[in-house]
Amino acid sequence: MKTSPLQLLGSIVAAVATPWVVVLVAVLLFLNPIWVGFDQDRSDVAGLTGYTPTQVRAVTGSILSDLVFGPPNFDVAATAGGAQVLDAGERSHMADVRKVLMGLGFAALAALLLLLLVGVVSRGRRWFWRAVSIGARVTVAGVIVVGAAFVVFFEQAFEAFHEIFFGPGTYSFDPRTEKLVQLFPDQFWSETSVAIAAAVLALAVVVAMLAGRLGREPGPASFGSPAAWAP
């Protein structure tokens, strides 16, 4: 059968949207106080900051809340009436981080909505699931390549990431005196990067296998009518 223009467009949308959705789900697994607190303990953040574990949790919780929910003030103090934990430069950087996070988050959410729309409108035809499988397999390949680069060249890759998304001189801090890099040290970021990459890889493999199977089944894989977008 000849592929219709709508089917081709839907396949492209589904294939492109799938990696965004997989990454979104993986990131959400780690953007929470449970994981952050666990890896901060592994990184000895209490020792680096001089705060008690309770203070570390309170300060980190406030920073995460401002990051995800806003407003992006990042003006938390470790003790009642004490000085702010983050200085002006650190607070400005965190505001920039929030802008980047919100931008990527909205892009991923848009991808999710488009993927759901194509899935519903196509009524789960085999071509839809094949496109999802292709997107997931591309994600697997991308994670392997990018993950290997981060493992071998973590500092260079981390620096390149900041150069892409942040202005020069806005993300360099002294780990001896500034709390932002003490609360989130290199060990925290390296381990979190590995954990997210592993989650993305696992999710992408599962999606590729399931979607590939649905794409091979005779007739519509799900959602009903076999006539959806048929050529």
Average of per-residue pLDDT values: 88
Global shape: elongated
Rg computed from alpha carbons, rounded to a whole number of angstroms: 21 Å
Number of helices: 9
Task: Please indicate the count of domains.
Answer: 1
What's the order of the H and E elements? HHHHHHHHH
- Residue runs with pLDDT of under 50 for 5 or more positions: 220-231
According to DSSP, the number of beta strands is 0
Distance between the termini: 7 Å
Structural class: mainly alpha
Largest sheet: none
Strand share of the residues?
under 5%
Helical amount: over 70%
Could you provide a short overview of the structure?
72% of the residues lie in helices and 0% in strands.
What does this structure look like?
By secondary structure, the protein is mainly alpha-helical. The chain has one domain (5-216). Helix content is 72%, strand content 0%. The protein has nine helices and no strands. It has helices spanning 5-30, 33-42, 45-49, 53-68, 88-121, 126-152, 154-165, 179-183, 186-216. Helix 1 (5-30) runs antiparallel to helix 9. The longest helix has 34 residues, at 88-121. The radius of gyration is 21 Å and the shape is elongated. The model is unreliable at 220-231 (pLDDT under 50).
Compile the SSE list and pairings.
Elements: H1 5-30, H2 33-42, H3 45-49, H4 53-68, H5 88-121, H6 126-152, H7 154-165, H8 179-183, H9 186-216
Helix pairs in contact: 1-5, 1-6, 1-9, 2-4, 2-9, 6-7, 6-9
List keywords for this structure.
72% helix; disordered C terminus; elongated; mainly alpha; 231 residues; single chain
